[in-house]
Design goal:
alpha/beta; 10 strands; 45% helix; globular
Length: 262
């Protein structure tokens, strides 16, 4: 019996590591089923003393995850937006607070909420063909799952602004250079390398590792904790604007948006 409550999150236990595969064809998007399932899965793994690390990757060869399914936002419903923001917040904050070591094996495009899942992990391994971006402003939205906070912490304010405010997409080599990922491997190699790192975790005291992780996070978490709910609220505030509806629907209709700044 699977410990995942959703077929969109496949789980395999390998020694002391949980391998989680996002499997939601065709772009491994997050939705109202997979996000709560992620939070519940992390709680289950936290309760299992035999699990010291987790690796998260995407099914297939093209996508780690393309983020949220934008069809959920086409109607411009603020309550739907609030619910999704809360799902994202809880899911990725549970991932960030996993007591062991979390490693993202980025096997393709990691866009929007897909990249935010990687940002919630401790370590990121990217394949050489991977592409990463937080393109939400291009469709009248904003990163609401920790993106504005965790990206800034990892790469600095300048690169965070370049990626979010200018819509800059980065390849794996650039991501490694700016500190967005810790290592780049050949195509098809991210999962294997991430599992090897996870196996190294098992050579250390899991209690020591948990304490060390908590201490490393102290300064960041104290700074970011208050900002995460505000980030989600500003996401919901966008749903009172014309530009939000224009941006999402222009994307779904495959046409350039016409912004009104209203």
């Amino acid at each position: 019996m699977s410990i995942s409550t959703s077929a969109k999150l496949k789980v395999e236990i390998i020694d002391h590591t949980a391998l989680i595969t996002i499997d939601n064809p065709g772009a491994n998007t997050w939705d109202t089923e997979s996000l709560p399932a992620l939070a519940q899965l992390i709680e289950t793994l936290n309760a299992d003393k035999n699990i010291f690390a987790l690796v998260i990757t995407g099914a297939g060869e093209k996508f780690f995850s393309a983020g949220a399914d934008l069809n959920l936002f086409a109607a411009g419903d603020p309550e739907q937006a609030r619910a999704m923001a809360e799902f994202f917040g809880k899911g990725f904050e549970c991932l960030a607070d996993f007591r062991g070591v979390s490693i993202a094996a980025i096997n393709g495009f990691a866009m929007g909420g897909g990249l935010e899942a990687c940002l919630a992990c401790d370590i990121r391994i990217a394949e050489e063909q991977a592409q990463m971006a937080l393109p939400e402003p291009k469709v009248g939205l904003l990163p609401c799952a920790g993106g504005t906070q965790r990206l800034s912490w990892l790469v600095g304010e300048g690169w965070a602004k370049k990626m979010i405010l200018c819509g800059e997409r980065v390849n794996a080599a650039t991501a490694e250079r700016i500190g967005l990922v810790e290592e780049v491997v050949e195509q098809g190699g991210a999962k294997e390398r991430a599992l090897a790192l996870a196996a190294q975790v098992a050579q250390q005291s899991p209690i020591s590792v948990a304490f060390c992780k908590e201490l490393i996070h102290q300064a960041r978490d104290n700074a970011v904790a208050a900002a995460l709910p505000y980030e989600r609220q500003k996401f919901v505030d966008l749903f009172s604007t014309e530009d939000q509806r224009e941006g999402v629907n222009a994307f779904l209709e495959k046409r350039p948006p016409v912004w009104k700044n209203a």
